[in-house]
Amino acid sequence: MGAAKRPDEPAATEWPARLHVVTGKGGTGKTSVAAALALALATGGRRTLLVEVEGRQGIAQLFDTEPFPYAERHLTDAPGGGEVRALAVDAEEALLEYLDMFYKLGGAGRALRKLGAIDFATTIAPGLRDVLLTGKVKEATTRTAGQRRVYDAVVLDAPPTGRIGRFLNVTAETARLARVGPIKTQSEGVAALLRSPMTAVHVVTLLEEMPVQETVDAIDELTSLGFPVGRVIVNGTRPPLPVGRPVTPDELAGGLHAAGLPADERTVSGLAAEARDQVIRRELEDSLRTDLVELGLPMVELPLLPDGVDRAGLDRLAEALVRAD
Amino acid sequence: MPSDNVAPPLDVDRILADPGVRIVVCCGAGGVGKTTTAAALALRAAEEHGRRTVVLTIDPARRLAQSLGLTELDNTPRQVKGIDVEASGGELHAMMLDMKRTFDDVVLQHTDPAKAAEIFANPFYAAMSSTFAGTQEYMAMEKLGQLHARGEWDLIVVDTPPSRSALDFLDAPARLSRFLDGRMLRLLLAPARTGGRSMFTFVTAGFGVFSKVVQKILGAQLLTDLSGFVAALDSMFGGFRQRAEQTYRILQARETAFLLVAAPEPDAVREAAYFAGRLRDEKMPLAGLVLNRVHRPAVPDLGPDESLAAAERLAEQGGHEGTVDVLRAHAALAQQAVREQRVATRFTEAFPTVPAVSVTAQPADVHDVDGLRTIGAAISRV
Question: Which of A61, B14, B33, B191 has the largest CB neighbor count within 10 A?
């Protein structure tokens, strides 16, 4: 399991960070990309941790497994002897764990829960929830066993672009409320990690107008908050269309005839309309791709998976991510 | 035509024209065109059915907002100009939800100005009104309740927040109630109610390990702020809960129609199915499913395999490059349509009686009134 590697060596030179935060507009395939990245970074005998924080059990659904408890579990093997583990962080459990770690609560933790204190604390204390979630991610990222880190990389399936800035920036919120004490220390530790070169925030998008707009906005926000933006990951891309002059109805009718297909007017005009829509769509995609390129960030394109995201599909995405330059 | 073959057809026009329907709630996963659908339905209700309509949007795409004349978040419905309502006599108003301002209004309404000022100055309030988990959902409900209470509109179309889960919208009132009823809150309130000035009373009163831990972790300053905040809000809790429950009942009433919005992708369809189950459990009126972005070949008789085989044949033969490309593109489209239908079937199998309509994917994104009109017509195609 790569035991000879030095503890501070990144999982892959093209993906230099150790904590990979994956965000994106809803519907862009953020969870699939996060899973594929965890696979990619585990390839060749490394160990990675895939973390989700929104209680959606998206990883379990993606891999068609039982819901994950609040514990790090083996998720899947990666090509070349690697391992991906998974963790669904739950704010309440994280708080209890945290309390136990610092205050040796024992049975008192259960009493707290009975009192509704845990529910209360994670609901009312704004930002506390997110501090706990990111705190757990930080702990996993920096955890060591013996001389080396337990995980070569941690991939976080983070909240969507609309909430990512606020989620990562919990410290500002928390610092306003808790001016002293362990929560403040905890948030400062998380903030330092998230703003360090150990972290990269990747934004997943599709070549559609709204996801691209949100990507541009999110990168703006992340940059102004001081978070290191990694890559723009364009999901669901299709191979380029052959560029040629549009086919005329007569040519199309002739071609269909030659292929032994019906060449009635309905078929010809229908196919011509499909081709026209296709061209409009592709032109829009090209112009959106240009907008993304202009962001000046490293970009990687992932292929559209025609058969949906199954395990074979994830491996394809992982391969594309490994090849990213 | 995915899903249409199995599910009963959804007649959106009948819903929009029905004077008994006063609220249409569009819900579903993020990224399925929920906001666009809500805006298109509202436009159609005004233009085609002559209804005085207001659409409540939450965080719309910038260009869509601009097309509705919404240049800033001002929390007040603005009339949308430049639409075609001469014949129908309808009106369209639009607004974007301003979460913080809505919260401020609620506070002002339920308390006196001095107390309100005290609440606004508390750091907890600032944080809670902008980041409290579920605040956006709760405020969307609150705003809906307000618009409904004003009685100025024939029809209110609501777009739901892009939540972690579409269910958050339904859970907001229950979560608020649970919070308000929590024993923890009672404990925090105890000193205020007994005349104590701060949490120190609470702490020294000896609540054992818990109070010590809380003070250690959160710090005394934070507890003082929190106690002050909770005490200040205390007078408003009754009103809060009452309104949340009221809005909840409105959502259950016959005047409301829930429309699930989804795209033919596994996640979106799964989310729609969860939501359909929840609406059934909560006895809320589910009117149907709008399946957006469905790909439909213009020549359905030519299957993907046949099209691809013909393309290969023709490519070998040579001389018909243009047709080869067209046939390959058609094969890909037909393949996608088959796939999408398979995904959509998962919903209709689970909820065979829920009416559904498929909306064909547009080649380009919608961000003007003409585009919304086209979408509205496509949704209403029966």
Answer: B33
